[in-house]
Every structure is written in C-alpha cells, then in structure tokens.
Amino acid sequence: MGKRSKGITVxxxxxxxxxxxxxxxxxxxxYLTWFCASSSGGGYAAVFMLVISVLSFPLxxxxxxxxxxxxxxxxxxxxxxxxxxxLAFFVLAAGFYLGxxxxxxxxxxxxxxxxxxxxxxxxxxxxxxxxxxxxxxxxK
Length: 140
Fold this sequence. Notes:
Layout: H1 6-40, H2 44-56, H3 58-70, H4 74-102, H5 105-130, H6 132-137
Helix pairs in contact: 1-2, 1-3, 3-4, 4-5
C-alpha cells in the first residue's frame, strides 16, 4: 500500500463524518415520514421528510467509500466519483424542481442558489479525486 497524502486523509474523514450524519438523517427521516404519513394522513411534512430521505440516501454509500478511501482502495475512488456525480445531479434537479413547486417563499427564492452551491462543491470533490497525483496514490 502506498503512502496516503494529507489531502486524501482529510477528504476521506470529511466523507466519513458527512456519510455518518447523512445515514442517520436518512434513517431518521425515513422513520418520521412513515410516522407522519400514518398518523396525520401525510401533508407537507411527510413530503419534505421523504425528499430529505431520498437526497441523503447516497450518503450511506459515501460513508462506505470514505472508509475504503482511507485504505487507498482503487474501487472506492471510482465508486466515490460515480456517487458524487449522481448526488450532484440529484441536488441540482431537486433545487430547480422542488423549490419552485413547494410554494414556500424561502425555498422558491434560495433553494436553487443553495443547490447550485452544493453542486459546485460536489463537482470540486469529484475533480479532486481525478487529479493525477491522487490517482497515483491508488495504484498498487
């Protein structure tokens, strides 16, 4: 196994922390969606929690690939790039589709801006993993 750079170490630990938070969020909102839908007949709360649950679902895979990034597994780097691009698509699509449809003034105004910012951060992360120096660390 090659030497792991500080950039990869920090990147992997950030993904592990965000993946753990996202996994808990996904599980919690999935449970709360079921609870809201069964007790109050649905409504905006259930729809909002379902959206959060769906958007946080890829973070479970980010947690797994973050752990294996620390071990410099090549498949984890490639899976991470694919997952990040899928997450970027979901975030961008949700920002421009769900924001205006919600009718909530805050979401209509700011959610497209927030989702575009997240899209840029996720795209930067995927670029980071495709750099030549990073690829070299994952070769056996």
